[in-house]
Task: structure prediction
Amino acid sequence: MKRPLQVTLLVLSGLGLLHGSLFTDLYLRYVKQGMRPLLIGSGVLLLVLGAAEAWSWRTRHDGHEGHGDGHGHDGDGHVHDHSGVPKVAWLLFLPALSLLFYAPPALGAYTASREPAKAVTEQKQEDFDPLPTASPLPITLRDFTRRVQQDRSRAIDGRTLLMTGFVTPAEGGDGWDLTRIMLSCCAADAQSVKVRIHGVTAPPADTWVTVTGTWHTGGTLGTRSAQVALDARAVRKVARPANGYTDALPLAPS
Amino acid sequence: MQTTAEVAVADASAGDDVPVRGWPRYWPLLLLAAAALPGLALFTLGRWGDEPALRAWRTVCLAIVMQAMPFLLLGTALSGAINAFVPARVFSRVLPRRPALAVPVASAAGVVLPGCECASVPVANSLIGRGVTPAAAFAFLLSAPAVNPVVLTATAIAFPGSPAMVLARLLASLATAAVMGWLWLFLGREQWLKPAVRHTGHRPGHSRWTEFRQGFQHDFLHAGGFLVVGAMAAATFNVAVPRSVLDTFSGSPWLSVLFLAALAILLAVCSEADAFVAASLTGFSPLARLTFMVVGPMVDLKLIALQAGTFGRAFAARFSAATTVVAILCSTLIGGMLL
Result:
């Protein structure tokens, strides 16, 4: 790999990272929010490396032509070291260019439909606080799953609930899935939470919606046999949240 | 599409020779092809790249690269700094004279070289070139990418709330490195090794800063390229292999250990990022994931290629095969006790 190409590669990678983390929120499609400072630092570091390489290449060129002394020999040695950069380094152009010009979207219905729903953690009975009295009650998908399958006080029964997620067409059976994808580290370890929605025809896949409704009777509430499902009364399209990989509470209805 | 592209490449390479003897008569056609083909290829690629499966593939691929990038930069910068600012004689002075003692010390010394496996191969080579016994250098080569603070920190981040995993990774990697060093001492033959060619480290008459920058840049470009390969392989696996296949392997404890060991060799993820990949392999037992993280930094496709280039093919084949077996045994034993 020639030295000007190495400079281009370093600068493009740096710009790509800065574009994705500092100037836009693209990075939220791939990694967690806490990575932002590290990504910005990496982008700056790569730009500095690229600039240093360009500087040393230029000054060496000038010196080489100006003096033609023993410097030239050393320079040749360096060129040898650098041609040792294997061809595989070319592949680094792919993520850099992809971030700059062809950034893939966040994971959505395709990934969620191919994965079994994530098992929610067990919660102790006494940790189930009384539900707030608001109606409709905003609730996260994970909380809803826990309330339906683990809360033996059946506080969720008869309540009107409000949940936000994106649409995943269901493969078998009636209805569709309201879905959230969560990351433990980056998009490679995505796991999904799903709530089956009944009573309303499915909007197109990957649409972000807020659903209002009540628990869909099926199985015994408060046990594992209870269906994690909702009888929807209303479905409203909402904007995709900035950080889609969380199971945040829906905004209060306007 | 592919045949057209091949023809175009053939045309282009033929065209390279032609201008010496003057332009061919059909040069406008070549010019047209040169203008139209890349556009067409980009368009097709764009259409094809928007299929849901490919979009998911690109997302996962980019996610792994982004997640690993800061760690890769940190590792290669530190290894460049140690290479330029710490004289290699420090390593040979610290090591005991008796090779059998030098092996465990060298494998523990791996803790201080934060770098990924691509960085440790040239360092081990230069150590051998400066008179460190090969057994100790190999113990160092194996342990350094797996037990250094950067990798252990990444492991702790990837497995929040399970410090036993970090400890098990540390111990199993140290044990594997020491066992392999002793094995080399008793069974290894010098003639399997290609003579050391390139020496790294500070050379008199050169600016240390320039050496640092060049080492850093070289290691980063080198390792970064292999990182993209690893990310692509991992993303392919992530998107293409249905969960049910994983489940058949994850069901049986022994098969899952062997399966993830093989996967670590095939995926060739950088040791600074492999903990995150391991964390994503939900459904596998912690023991199998530990094996993935112990085997991965020591044996994988890109390492075998690097070792064959540096030490020779005869060495790489024997060394990698033995290391795989020892690593699986060590991680099973230590993981069985700790996890």
The radius of gyration of chain B is 23 Å.
